[in-house]
């Protein structure tokens, strides 16, 4: 408010979370390209590992939100 900014803090904190989802989609596209092209092996494994890491973080975040909703239920 002091900076005369129209966005609040929660809006700024949401951006990185949205970006993680986009990274997952990008990695899926890259993985498809590796499978259909000549890039098999080490590059594909690295992309698959990165994708699994992103998917784990997204699941973990969703699980934390669900647990928070359950705790606030009473």
From TrEMBL:
Annotated transmembrane regions: none
Domain DH residue range list: 1-64
Pfam families referenced in this protein's UniProt entry, alphabetically: RhoGEF (PF00621)
InterPro entries per UniProt: DBL_dom_sf, DH_dom, Rho_GEF_signaling-related
Name listed for the protein in its UniProt record: DH domain-containing protein
Protein's organism: Cirrhinus mrigala
